[in-house]
TrEMBL record:
One of its GO terms (biological process) is regulation of DNA-templated transcription. Residues 898-963 form the HTH luxR-type domain. Keywords: ATP-binding, Nucleotide-binding. InterPro entries: AAA_16, P-loop_NTPase, Sig_transdc_resp-reg_C-effctor, TPR-like_helical_dom_sf, Tscrpt_reg_LuxR_C, WH-like_DNA-bd_sf. Pfam families: AAA_16, GerE. One of its GO terms (cellular component) is cytoplasm. This is Putative ATPase. SUPFAM superfamilies: C-terminal effector domain of the bipartite response regulators, P-loop containing nucleoside triphosphate hydrolases, TPR-like. It comes from the Bacteria. The lineage of its organism: Bacteria, Bacillati, Actinomycetota, Thermoleophilia, Solirubrobacterales. One of its GO terms (molecular function) is adenylate cyclase activity. The keyword Signal does not apply.
Length: 968
C-alpha cells in the first residue's frame, strides 16, 4: 500500500514539547486544558496522536473521545462518555467507591456500563446540570488520583452543548487534579460561527487554559513532508508548486501526492472538488458504500454499515477495500471511518436532497433494528433527515426524554422543538399535554426565554375545554414559577393552580403553598407569606410529604426571622436542613442553610451567620455539590467577613473564585463584595468597575435585598471618593428603585448611607442644595423610624441610630454621646469598620464641644487601630487628617501606650479575652460563644496584636489586671 502520510511528525516539534511540559505539570498536580486550534487539515489530530504515543504519556491513562457531526448533533456528553468508557469498568468502579450515593447513581445513569443501585428521587432543578459537570470532574479527579489522566476531546466545534459547558466548567473549576485535557477546535467552521467564537473566547479567558494555533507549513516544511512521504528527496520546483497550491496545508499536500501532483488548477480550500477526485476514481460499489458512511457521520461498526448499505459483510469489505488502500477510509477490527472529516463532508455535500433522504432512511432503519449500536438522539436525527414524520416523532420524544434524563436540557429542547413541529403530520397517538409539560420544564431549566410559557399555554390548550383539574394545576403551577419576575402574575397563577386541586392534603398542594409563600416574601409581604408557609407545612405533614414539609419549613423559617421570631425560625430551618440532606436534595438542603444564615444576620449574630455558611459548605461537600453550591456559601461568608472586619480572609475567598463558573446571583455577590472591599481599601477605580458590573447585573424585577445592597455600596463609594453631590444624586436614584418594596434587613443600610450623603451636602453645599439635602435627610429618617419597630433586626436599628446621628450633623446638634452610642452598637454587632466611622464622627463632635484632648484622642485612637488593621486607607487618611488638624498626635500616642482592653477591643474581643484568661482553648471559646474554632483563633490573634503581647498567658494577665475575668 503506497504511503500517504509522513512517518514522522513535521513542523510541530515546539507544540509537541509544550504538550509534554503540560503533561508533566499535570502529573505533578497542576491541571491544564490545552486548546489546539487550526484550519481543517492543518494537523491537529496528527499532533494529538503523536503526543499520545510519546514518552510524556507513557505513565498516563489516555482517554479519547471525538465529537461527531451527525446531522449537526451529538448525544449529550457523547465524547466525554466515550472517553470514560475507555478507562474500563474496573477503573471506573474503583473511582466511584466512596462517592455519595446520589453522585454514584447519577453517574451510572450517564455511563450505563457502571453497575449501580436504583437511583434516589432526582432533583431536576436548573442547577442539576451544573452538578452533573461537578460529578464528572470529581470522577476524573478520582481516576487521576491513582494515575495521571490525559483526556482528549477532538473537534469541539461539533460538540453538543452539554459537552461544551462541561469543558468550560472543568476549565473554571479544576485546579490540582492530575489531569490534562486536550481539546481540538477547527477555526472558521461551525454551524453558528459567532457562538463558537464566543465560546472559545470564554475558554481562553480561563487561567487554566493554554491555547496553541497550528499554522500552515512553510515551503521548507512542505518539502520535508513530500520527502518523507515519497521517501526520496523532493524536487525544489515541485515542492514550491505544491506549497503554493496547498497554501501549506498538510492534508492537501497529502491529497496532491495521492493524485500524483499532476493537477494544474489550484487546489480549492473551501470547495470539495479536489477532495472528491480520488473518491470518483474509486469503483462504483465503493462510492455507494462511502455515501452511506457519510450519512452516518461517525465511525460505524461493520455489521451496522453492512445493514444500512444492504451489502453482506464480505461484499462490503470488498467494496471498501479500494477506499482503504487509497487512504480515503480507515478500518480496524470492528469499524470503518473516513480518514479525514473533510473528505466525509465533501462526499455528503455532493449528495442531492433525494439521495440524502434515502440514505438517512436506510441508516435510520438499520439503527432502529440494532438499538445497542445507537442512542435515541442519533436515531431521531436520522429519522428527521429521512423525512419520516411518524418514526421521527416517536424517536424525537424518546431523544428528548433521554437528554432530560441526564440534565442535558439544551439538547432536550432541540428535540422537543422537533416534536412540536412534527405534530402537524402523521404520527403515533401521544399525550401532547404531558409532552408539552416536560418540554416546558426542559426549556425553563435550559434558561430559554419565553418558550417555557408558550409551551405551557399550548399544553393547557391540549387538555381540552374540560381539562382534568390536577393536570391543569400542574400547568398553572409552572406558569407561576416561570414568571417569578412578574410577582403579581405569578401569584395569580398559583391561586388558579390551588383552585384546581382538591382541598384535601397532598404533596402538590403543600408545594404550591410553599411556592406562593416564597413569592409573597419577594413582594415583602411577610405576614401573608408566613401564613401561607404555615398552611404549606400543615398540609405537608397531613399528607406525610416530608420533602414538601422540609421546603415549607425553609420558607417559614425565613419569614419568622423577618418577623423577629428567631428561635422558632432557627428550629424550622434546622429541621429543613436535616430533611434536605437526608433525602439528598441539594437544592432544598442548601436553600435551608442560606435561609438559616440570613436569620442569624436578622438577629444580629454576624459571627453565627458566618459559621452557618461554613456548615452549608460542609453540607454541599457531603452531597457532592461543592462546586455547584459551595461557591454561594463562600461568597456569603466573604460578605460576612467584610462586615466582621476580616478583610484579608474575605479577599482570599474572592480570589479563590477568580475565573470560576458562577450563577447570576453568585456573580452579583462577587462584584458587590469585591467593590466594597476595594472601596474600603481606597482602590477607587477598581471599586467603580466592580460596582458598575454589579449594577449592570440587576434587573427591574430583582429582589429588594439585592437592589438595596448594591445601591448602598454605590453611594458609599461616592462618599469615600469625596464626591458628596454625586453620592446624593446616586442616593435619590437608589431610593427610587426600592420605593414600595422596602424590607427590614438591607433597606435600612441604604437609607442610612443616603442620609449620610445628604448630611455631607447639607453641611458643605450652597444654600439651595443644602436645603434640599436637609429635607431628604429629614424625610428618610422619619420614614425609617416609622418603618422599623422593636422587633426589627438589630442591624436595622443600628442603621436607624446612625441615620439619626447623621441628621444631627445637619441641624447643628451633633452630640458626641449620640455617636458614642452608635459606635457601641456596631461593636456589639461586630461591625468594626462601621464602628470606626462612628468614632471618627464622635471625635469630630468632641473636638467641636470640648477642649479636652484626652477625650478626643480616645475614640480617634480606637478608630485608627481598626483602620490600620483593616488597611482602610480612605478612613485612615480622614482620621490622620483630623489628628493633625487637632494637634492630637501626642495624645493619641499616649492613649495607645496606656489604653486597656476596654479602649482597644470590641465587645466580642473582650468576651474572647475573658475566656482566654480562664484558660479556654480556641475550640472551647468557639463552643462557648457559638462561633467556629477558626473564628475564635482569628479573634485571639487580633487581641494579641491590639494588646501588644506575645502570648495567651500575657493577654490573660492584662484581662485580670483590668478586671475582665471577674466581670465575665
Amino acid at each position: 500500500m503506497p504511503r500517504i502520510a509522513s512517518p514522522h511528525l513535521i513542523g510541530r516539534e515546539a507544540e509537541l514539547q509544550r504538550l509534554s511540559e503540560l503533561s508533566a505539570a499535570a502529573a505533578a498536580g497542576a491541571f491544564t486544558l490545552a486548546l489546539i486550534k487550526g484550519d481543517a487539515g492543518i494537523g491537529k489530530t496528527r499532533l494529538v496522536r503523536e503526543f499520545e504515543r510519546s514518552a510524556a504519556c507513557a505513565d498516563a491513562l489516555v482517554l479519547s473521545g471525538s465529537c461527531m457531526a451527525i446531522g449537526g448533533e451529538d448525544t449529550p456528553y457523547g465524547p466525554l462518555v466515550r472517553a470514560l468508557r475507555g478507562a474500563g469498568a474496573e477503573t471506573l468502579q474503583a473511582a466511584m467507591s466512596g462517592l455519595p450515593e446520589v453522585m454514584r447513581a447519577e453517574l451510572a445513569i450517564l455511563i450505563p456500563t457502571l453497575s449501580h443501585t436504583p437511583p434516589l428521587p432526582r432533583d431536576s432543578s436548573r442547577g442539576a446540570q451544573g452538578r452533573q459537570y461537578e460529578y464528572l470532574l470529581e470522577l476524573l479527579g478520582r481516576i487521576a488520583d491513582s494515575q495521571p489522566v490525559v483526556l482528549v476531546v477532538e473537534d469541539i466545534h461539533w460538540a453538543d452543548p452539554s459537552t461544551r459547558h462541561c469543558l468550560l466548567f472543568i476549565a473554571r473549576n479544576a485546579r490540582h487534579e492530575r489531569l490534562l485535557v486536550l481539546a481540538t477546535h477547527r477555526l472558521h467552521d461551525a454551524a453558528d460561527l459567532h457562538a463558537a467564537e464566543l465560546y472559545i473566547g470564554q475558554l481562553e479567558r480561563c487561567e487554566t487554559v493554554t491555547s496553541m494555533v497550528l499554522h500552515p507549513f512553510s515551503e521548507a516544511q512542505v518539502r520535508e513532508q513530500v520527502t518523507a512521504i515519497l521517501q526520496t528527496p523532493a524536487d525544489v520546483a515541485d515542492s514550491h508548486r505544491i506549497a503554493a497550491r496547498t497554501q501549506g496545508n498538510p492534508f492537501f499536500v497529502e491529497e496532491l501526492i495521492a493524485h500524483g501532483a499532476t493537477t494544474e488548477a489550484p487546489l480549492p480550500r473551501a470547495q470539495a472538488a479536489a477532495l472528491l477526485e480520488r473518491v470518483h476514481a474509486l469503483p462504483e460499489p465503493s462510492q455507494r458504500a462511502l455515501q452511506v458512511l457519510a450519512a452516518f457521520g461517525r465511525a460505524v461498526h461493520h455489521d451496522l454499515l453492512s445493514a444500512a448499505a444492504d451489502l453482506p459483510e464480505p461484499a462490503l469489505t470488498e467494496a471498501l477495500r479500494p477506499a482503504v488502500e487509497g487512504h480515503v477510509v480507515e478500518a480496524d477490527a470492528t469499524t470503518f471511518t473516513f480518514r479525514h472529516a473533510l473528505t466525509r463532508e465533501a462526499v455528503y455535500d455532493a449528495l442531492l436532497p433525494g439521495e440524502r433522504r434515502r440514505l438517512h432512511g436506510a441508516v435510520a432503519a438499520a439503527l432502529h433494528d440494532r438499538p445497542h449500536m445507537t442512542n435515541a438522539g442519533e436515531l431521531a436525527v436520522q429519522w428527521r433527515a429521512a423525512d419520516e414524520p411518524r418514526a421521527a416523532l416517536a424517536a424525537s420524544i424518546a431523544a428528548a426524554q433521554a437528554a432530560a434524563g441526564v440534565y442535558a436540557y439544551s439538547e432536550a429542547v432541540e428535540h422537543y422543538k422537533g416534536v412540536v413541529s412534527l405534530w402537524d403530520g402523521e404520527g403515533p397517538d401521544v399525550d401532547r399535554a404531558q409532552i408539552l409539560l416536560d418540554a416546558a420544564d426542559a426549556a425553563n431549566r435550559a434558561g430559554v426565554e419565553d418558550l417555557p410559557i408558550e409551551w405551557c399555554r399550548l399544553g393547557l390548550a391540549a387538555l381540552g375545554d374540560e381539562p382534568d383539574p390536577r393536570r391543569a394545576a400542574a400547568f398553572y403551577e409552572r406558569l407561576g414559577r416561570f414568571q417569578d419576575h412578574r410577582l403579581d402574575t405569578s401569584l395569580e397563577y398559583y391561586r388558579q393552580a390551588l383552585a384546581c386541586l382538591d382541598a384535601g392534603p397532598s404533596a402538590e398542594r403543600a408545594r404550591l403553598l410553599g411556592d406562593e409563600a416564597l413569592t409573597l416574601s419577594l413582594s415583602v409581604r411577610w405576614d401573608e407569606a408566613r401564613d401561607r408557609a404555615e398552611q404549606a407545612l400543615a398540609v405537608a405533614l397531613d399528607a406525610g410529604a416530608e420533602i414538601e414539609a422540609g421546603f415549607a419549613r425553609s420558607v417559614l423559617g425565613l419569614m419568622l426571622g423577618y418577623l423577629g421570631a428567631f428561635d422558632e425560625a432557627e428550629a424550622h430551618l434546622r429541621e429543613a436542613c436535616r430533611i434536605g440532606e437526608a433525602h439528598e436534595r441539594p437544592d432544598d438542603a442548601t436553600r435551608a442553610y442560606v435561609h438559616l444564615g440570613e436569620v442569624r444576620r436578622l438577629r444580629g449574630d454576624l459571627p453565627g451567620a458566618r459559621a452557618v455558611m461554613g456548615e452549608g459548605l460542609e453540607a454541599a461537600r457531603r452531597l457532592g455539590v461543592e462546586a455547584s453550591y459551595g461557591r454561594y456559601f463562600a461568597l456569603n461568608a466573604a460578605e460576612d467577613e467584610y462586615e466582621l472586619g476580616q478583610w484579608r480572609s474575605a479577599q482570599a475567598r474572592l480570589d479563590a473564585l477568580s475565573g470560576a463558573s458562577l450563577t447570576w446571583t453568585e456573580t452579583l455577590l462577587l462584584h458587590a463584595v469585591s467593590g466594597q472591599l476595594a472601596a474600603g481599601r481606597g482602590e477607587l477605580e477598581a471599586a467603580r468597575g466592580w460596582l458598575d458590573a454589579a449594577t449592570a447585573q440587576l434587573r427591574d424585577s430583582s429582589a429588594t435585598e439585592w437592589t438595596a445592597y448594591v445601591g448602598a455600596a454605590v453611594i458609599e463609594l461616592e462618599l469615600t471618593a469625596g464626591r458628596s453631590l454625586e453620592a446624593l444624586a446616586a442616593a435619590r436614584r437608589q431610593l427610587d428603585r426600592v420605593r414600595g418594596r422596602e424590607e427590614q434587613l438591607y433597606t435600612p443600610g441604604l437609607v442610612a448611607v443616603a442620609v449620610r450623603a445628604a448630611a455631607d451636602v447639607a453641611t458643605s453645599a450652597p444654600a439651595a442644595q443644602a436645603a434640599e439635602a436637609r429635607q431628604l435627610a429629614e424625610i428618610q429618617v422619619g420614614w425609617l423610624a416609622g418603618f422599623l419597630s422593636e422587633r426589627s433586626p438589630p442591624i436595622a436599628l443600628a442603621h436607624l441610630a446612625g441615620a439619626r446621628a447623621e441628621l444631627s450633623r445637619v441641624d447643628g446638634s451633633d452630640d458626641p454621646a449620640t455617636w458614642r452610642a452608635v459606635a457601641a452598637e456596631w461593636d456589639r454587632l461586630t461591625h468594626p469598620y462601621r464602628a470606626a466611622y462612628a468614632r471618627l464622627r464622635e471625635a469630630e463632635a468632641l473636638r467641636a464641644t470640648t477642649g479636652d484632648r484626652t477625650l478626643v484622642a480616645a475614640p480617634l485612637g480606637a478608630a485608627l487601630d481598626v483602620a490600620r488593621e483593616l488597611g482602610a486607607a480612605p478612613l485612615l487618611a480622614d482620621l490622620e487628617t483630623l489628628t493633625r488638624r487637632a494637634r492630637l498626635q501626642s495624645a493619641v500616642a499616649r492613649r495607645s501606650s496606656s489604653a486597656g482592653p476596654r479602649e482597644v477591643l470590641t465587645n466580642r474581643e473582650q468576651e474572647v479575652l475573658a475566656l482566654v484568661a480562664q484558660g479556654y482553648s480556641n475550640k472551647r471559646i468557639g463552643e462557648a460563644l457559638f462561633i467556629t474554632q477558626r473564628t475564635a483563633g482569628l479573634h485571639v490573634s487580633r487581641i494579641l496584636g491590639k494588646l501588644s503581647v506575645s502570648s495567651r498567658h500575657e493577654a490573660g494577665a492584662v484581662a485580670r489586671r483590668h478586671g475582665l475575668v471577674d466581670e465575665a
